[in-house]
């Protein structure tokens, strides 16, 4: 399966809060953001330009978006991308929405990640 990917503009951060923390309204200023809450934590991904006072933060992430929408019957999309990038020791943070998948890679590894994907026959637009 050939995938088409695009790079979202901007640098992103991944934040960890206490599980009972309130979701900050300021994340709505981000062009892309994701919020996940579990019994153990509240995780927020948003543009790095938004100041959040989290327990922990990881900065300098870029986002590769798999152009969708992807059909729910498709299998192995994230596994295929993950395997390709892991083969080059590029760690990822993956997110999914109803329509598609997003792959976060470190800013310092973005060019290499794109090269790995195109070398494997995928398209970056």
What does this structure look like?
The chain is an alpha+beta fold and 125 residues long. It has one domain (4-124): 2-Layer Sandwich (VC0802-like), CATH 3.30.2130. Helix content is 16%, strand content 35%. The chain contains two helices and eight strands; from the N terminus they run E-E-E-E-E-H-E-E-H-E. The model has no long low-confidence stretch (mean pLDDT 92).
Features:
125 residues; alpha+beta; VC0802-like; 8-stranded mixed sheet; 8 strands; 16% helix; 35% strand; elongated
Write the layout of secondary structure elements.
Layout: E1 4-7, E2 12-17, E3 34-37, E4 42-47, E5 56-66, H1 77-86, E6 92-96, E7 101-106, H2 110-119, E8 123-124
Parallel strand pairs: 1-8
Antiparallel strand pairs: 1-5, 2-4, 2-5, 3-4, 5-7, 6-7
